[in-house]
Design a protein that fits this description.
mainly alpha, five-stranded parallel beta sheet, 66% helix, globular
């Protein structure tokens, strides 16, 4: 009994390493059944899950030999191994025998807390404290739940009491456990101040810490304060607090990382990555930072994410157990690093390799939720619905909210309304996103739609969208103006003056239309043909547009896409088209046709036809009301990009109107060249629609296209579940369920389409500046001058054209005149170091040393060498 009492004290003090050692000492001499639950508990807490499961089997086999206290220990082991149903059953049975057992009551409360049943959890925590009021862990859990329920008066008094208990127990507690309890209580106090808007108290407390504590302590608590502000929807205040902290400690990686998380939440991905890299510069051997970098980059920069994950694995493997890195933390970091790598490999579509990594992780720790999620999502994308559901069910046992939301995403809806009510409560537990988590509300909207409670479904969708809009920056007017500019740039006259552009190939097929119009279904049908490969939603056209914009900024033309298309020479267009063709062919070298299914390419049809005059373009149409509702009920990963419109019905309506006007423009510009197909027709008569599609593309009929749902290919879009099903008609006229809520949509769709007058430079011929540059390199100064002055006639502020004319004048000996052009060029593009070097050299030649000194920030010798690369002066 004395041995068991000592072991249980170690549990209370959370000394699990010592607990494991002492259990092994005892078990080496005496196979005592009552030791087994505690041994299991120690193994599980230290992360050795397979060993813990083996010990648990032994404990269960000997359950007849366990007294009530030992079975309460077994209940704790069940909790740590996420066997919550077994834990509840075990603890309830023990409480029949010992109804006033404070530890059993507290553990039962913990079970319900983990399951999200706050009322039951509070009930058992309070019963436990009525018996033994000094238990700090129970006090902390109860305070946390009271804060969630906005029971501010209760929280205030219980916080005061908990701090008094902590002070009384200071000498009795292990130093690390004391500090752990103190930190948790201070975090809850900080949360209480923020919730009750007692900001001055929190800030005075932080000011005191700044005076008394070192950088690490102060910035840790500033980070906690910022987190609690964000959880209370005070995101701007949170960011301001972090910025002020970084003024004092500019290299502190805790604050830098906190800023990165807020930036990512608000769609500022590049800033978030930059901030994480700043933190890595301060602490390059921290594997946790490399893991964060990998996870942040994975959706945007896969190779960068892969390198970061590999670095994290290397660093975590080299860690040695220490106070800073106890064995539990090292184990967790190793698992997280491997999981980051698996996610990247999955994103690169190396599915077999990713699956092997995920399964290795789950062998080491069957309860590792990130791996369960990662593998489950991969299975879902590849159409392995049953396998994904099995993994999501496992998540549900460990972390019910995550499990249920993943299952809903896989269209496995809870039948029990009480479960949905628990999810609603979970959605309102504060997170960095704020007081309410919009993602869970979107899942609840889908679940209540499945239960045919359409008013409730729409209410959840509306709340979710309104919450999401706080972080979105979609500009309807800017989009409308952009569409008008595209129509203006890609006109009949452009194609009349740029004949025979592009390359002759019908390999690319572009499936496009409004998001949620049925583009994924159409792609899946045609990609089931033996000669057609579906590559999914590719960014190849938008990436080339970004490349054009980068080039125009580089040369300082003052123009951007689509204005600049009239300056593309036939050679430039051919090069761009061949690069795209090569990239497409890498997906499937033997395919006759390769499909890019990026819906918003409806904005880029003009450029597509510029590059590939023979490209097949399939425009998918659907009842706009159904498109609107489907978008409104979807939470997009690209919400901070092109999908920001989908979170407001009026904006959806305006986007629909923009789409219609743009498609009308393209159909007039390319009559008979774009196939328009209706989603409703595809659903109603799939075979006829499929034959129409294949005939348009130019391939023979193959009946297997009607079994498109069996095609083994990844689907990463919001339609990931739908296209795995046979054709179903329930999505037709879905809008009728919500017809009473559609007034904002109709207002947006039917409003007059207006835009500002378009002012755009029109070049009669392409390539004035690039031809001029080539002539200059060949030594033809007169030809270079003539071409660049033609450009300057149409675009007087063109940076590169001014620069080249300046070089020509200097080369001819008219240095003073050349300086005027060089100055104008550098003013347009002040980042161009070679232009600066040429201007400095011109100033030297004309004896303007004061301007040399004013402008020169480079090493004088380097400046002279740089200048010689671009200009060769005569003796003059």
């Amino acid at each position: 009994m004395k041995k068991l009492s000592t072991l249980r004290t170690l549990v209370e003090q959370q000394q699990y390493y010592d607990l494991q050692q002492k259990c092994e000492e005892i078990l080496n001499h005496d196979i005592s059944a009552e030791i087994l639950p505690l041994y299991t508990l120690s193994q599980a807490q230290l992360g050795d899950i397979p060993a813990a499961q083996q010990s648990l089997l032994k404990a269960e086999a000997a359950i007849g030999q366990l007294d009530t206290e030992a079975r309460i220990d077994l209940g704790a082991a069940y909790i740590v191994l996420f066997e919550l149903d077994k834990a509840i059953q075990c603890l309830q049975a023990c409480l029949i025998e010992l109804p006033d057992h404070a530890v059993a009551l507290a553990r039962l409360g913990l079970c319900y807390m983990t399951q999200g049943d706050i009322e039951q959890a509070c009930h058992f925590f309070e019963k436990s404290l009525n018996i033994e009021s000094h238990r700090l862990a129970v006090l902390i859990n109860l305070i946390s739940l009271q804060l969630q329920q906005d029971q501010h008066d209760k929280t205030y008094h219980l916080l005061e009491y908990a701090f008094r208990v902590l002070i009384r127990q200071q000498d009795m507690l292990d130093k690390s456990i004391y500090q752990q309890h103190k930190n948790r209580l201070q975090t809850l106090q900080c949360q209480y101040w923020v919730i009750t808007e007692a900001f001055s108290q929190a800030e005075n407390w932080l000011a005191g810490l700044k005076q008394e504590k070192d950088e690490d302590d102060y910035t840790l608590w500033l980070s906690v304060y910022a987190t609690k502000l964000a959880e209370n929807d005070q995101h701007e205040q949170a960011e301001d607090a972090l910025i002020n902290g970084l003024k004092h400690y500019p290299q502190n990686h805790h604050l830098i990382l906190q800023r990165s998380e807020l930036a990512l939440l608000q769609g500022r991905t590049q800033q978030a990555i930059h901030l994480i890299e700043l933190a890595i510069k301060k602490d390059p051997d921290n594997p946790g930072l490399w893991i964060k970098l990998s996870n942040t980059c994975v959706s945007f920069y896969e190779e960068r994410a892969k390198k970061a994950a590999e670095k994290a694995i290397q660093l975590s493997d080299s860690l040695v157990v220490s106070d800073e890195y106890p064995i539990e933390r090292i184990t967790a970091l190793k698992q997280q690093a491997k999981n980051s790598l698996a996610l990247v490999i999955s994103s690169l579509q190396k599915y077999a390799e990713a699956e092997t990594l995920f399964k290795q992780l789950l062998t080491e720790n069957p309860h590792f939720i990130p791996a369960l999620k990662g593998l489950g999502q991969q299975y879902l994308q590849r159409g392995k619905i049953d396998e994904s559901v099995e993994l999501f069910e496992r998540i549900k046992l460990i972390e019910p909210v995550s499990g249920y939301t993943a299952l809903i995403n896989a269209r496995q809806f809870p039948e029990d309304i009480k479960t949905l009510e628990k999810l609603d409560k979970a959605a309102r537990i504060p997170s960095l996103e704020g007081r309410v988590r919009s993602g869970i509300l979107f899942q609840l909207a889908a679940a209540y739609e499945k239960h045919q409670d359409y008013d409730k479904a729409f209410a959840y969708a509306t709340e979710a969208n309104n919450l999401s809009k706080r972080f979105l920056h979609y500009d309807t007017k800017a989009h409308r103006q952009s569409c008008a500019r595209i129509r203006y740039a890609f006109s009949q006259s452009l194609y009349a003056h740029r004949k025979d552009y592009g390359i002759s190939t019908n390999l690319p097929v572009f499936v496009l239309g409004m998001p949620r119009s049925g583009t994924t279904l159409v792609e899946q049908i045609i990609a089931s043909h033996s000669q057609i490969f579906g590559a999914g939603e590719l960014g190849i056209i938008p990436s080339r547009i970004q490349g054009l914009n980068r080039w125009e900024r580089h040369v300082g033309s003052g123009r951007a896409y689509p204005d600049c298309v009239d300056d593309l020479t036939p050679n430039a267009v051919e090069k761009i088209a061949n690069d795209i063709l090569k990239e497409l062919q890498e997906y499937a070298p033997d395919a006759k046709h390769i499909v890019d299914k990026l819906p918003h390419n409806f904005e880029n049809i003009g450029l597509i036809k510029f590059l590939f005059p023979q490209a097949k373009i399939i425009s998918v149409r659907r009842d706009p009301r159904d498109i609107a509702i489907s978008n409104y009920f979807t939470d997009y990963q690209a919400k901070h990009g092109g999908m920001g419109f989908a979170y407001d019905l009026t904006s959806i309506g305006e986007q629909l109107a923009d789409h219609n006007l743009l498609m009308h423009h393209w159909q007039q510009l390319f009559p008979g060249e774009i196939l328009e197909i209706n989603y409703e027709d595809v659903v109603e008569n799939t075979e006829a629609s499929a034959k129409n599609l294949l005939e348009y593309i130019g391939v023979n009929w193959e009946p297997q296209v009607l079994h498109f749902n069996q095609l083994d290919r990844p689907i990463k879009t919001a339609s990931v579940w739908q296209v795995r099903q046979p054709i179903y008609k329930t999505s037709k006229a879905k809008w009728m369920r919500y017809k009473n809520h559609l007034a904002p949509l109709l207002n947006g769709t039917n409003a007059r389409i207006e835009w500002e007058p378009i002012e755009m430079i029109s070049l009669p011929e392409p390539g004035f500046q690039t031809i001029g540059a080539d002539l200059f390199k060949q030594g033809d100064n007169d030809g270079a001058e003539l071409n660049c002055k033609k450009m300057l006639y149409h675009n007087p502020d063109h940076g590169a054209a001014n620069y080249l004319v300046g070089l020509v004048y200097c080369h001819k000996g008219y240095v003073s005149e050349g300086i005027e052009y060089l100055e104008k060029a550098l003013k347009k593009c002040p980042w161009q170091q070679e232009w600066k070097a040429a201007l400095i050299q011109a100033y030297r030649v004309t004896g303007q040393n004061d301007k040399v000194n004013q402008l020169s920030t480079l090493n004088p010798n380097q400046t002279k060498n740089d200048a010689k690369q671009f200009i060769s002066y005569t003796d003059s």
